[in-house]
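Hey L., structure's done. Input below.
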Amino acid sequence: MPILKFTVEKNTVLNKFAKIKGIDITKLKKSLEIGGVLINNRRIKDLTYKLKKGDKISICIDEKIPEFKFSTDWIVYEDDYLIVLNKPQGMTTQGTMCYDINHLYYFVKRYLKGYAGLHHRLDRDTSGLVLFTKKKEANKPVSELFKNKEIKKTYIAIVDGNLTEEIKIQKPIGRIPQSEPKKWWINMPDSKEAITTVKPLKTTKNYTLIEAMPLTGRTHQIRVHLASAGYPILGDKFYNPEDSTTYPLMLHCKKLEFNHPITKKRITIETDVPERFKLITE
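Output:
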């Protein structure tokens, strides 16, 4: 079933409103758990939330069969406070409004049998490392690490063209006005500072395997910066539309380095090179 939209006619509570509208309560509970209920564009989790006359409600109870089956092989690091997973390509980090259990956050919460704190995301088609907190007491120090840019993230990518020397791309990024689906580019209205360092690792006739380290965290930053510099990522249909190959997006978050938020011990977490990168790494 698609998204259901209503305007509240009189003050009531959500579960009573749902019964009046013929919405299955079991499905509503699942939608609440996964973030599929919005009231006045704000995500609601409480089945007995007090509704006021005029409130706008959106409810998605579209149940989708997950395309992925969770594997403990995804877990790269885990301790009492943190868990880091290697997100498969094609999976979102967090679900959309519609009831969708086909995302990493859902799988992590199921694995932990309870709380998981999400602090950063990767695009659906970008694979690699995503860090979650296991205890709420770790949330603030982890947020501070991200805020102060104290988590060093290293990506690898395969780009079109031959990059022969290390470069630093310092170009502000903003959303392209009225773009649907949303796209970003350099020097847009309301752009924000964005800095990425790029280092070539291996070059073939047509492509370069590179290492990219974003010093800021803008949406699509690496993809936009590389495309704007003349080295678009292979398989990036958004920012490399002239790419006629059938390769998937060749972008992967390979390494995270940071001081543990509780123990303060320096941690380096790294994955193997994904199989799809063997195009150029072998």
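The domain at 3-60 is CATH 3.10.290.10 (Structural Genomics Hypothetical 15.5 Kd Protein In mrcA-pckA Intergenic Region; Chain A). Residues 88 and 127 are 5 Å apart (CA to CA).

-- N.
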